[in-house]
Amino acid sequence: MVTTIQLTIDDSILLSLKEKKDTFAQNMLFEYALRLYRKQKLSLGKAAELAGYSRLEFIQKLQVEHEPIFDYDERMIEEMIASATMTPHLLQESGV
């Protein structure tokens, strides 16, 4: 199922931006997909889908825009560090 959404944009805006309506719409979808990805409301794959890109194309676009591909908050980083420091201890206990 696909939903169609229509927006009304004054031509003067497109003229100011020097963009065609298709380019404007694609850029707008990318920006919104990026915003939802940053807020962790969409996964990378779903954000790419919303923006009309493959996952790889979306990652490449993020790189061109100097956007981090993985945007962890401080809590998530602390959890990853704690997990990483516990792993060697657990491996030693299991005899691995």
Order of helices and strands: HHHHH
Largest sheet: none
Task: Tell me roughly what share of residues is in helical segments.
Answer: 55-70%
How confident is the prediction overall: mean pLDDT?
A: 84
Count of DSSP H/I helices: 5
Low-confidence stretches: none
In terms of DSSP E residues, the strand content is: under 5%
Shape: elongated
Number of strands: 0
In angstroms, what separates the terminal alpha carbons?
50 Å
Give the radius of gyration.
20 Å
Q: Give me the secondary-structure category.
A: mainly alpha
Detailed description of the structure:
By secondary structure, this protein is mainly α. The protein has a domain at 11-70. The protein is built from five helices and no strands. Helix 2 (21-38) runs antiparallel to helix 3. The mean pLDDT is 84.
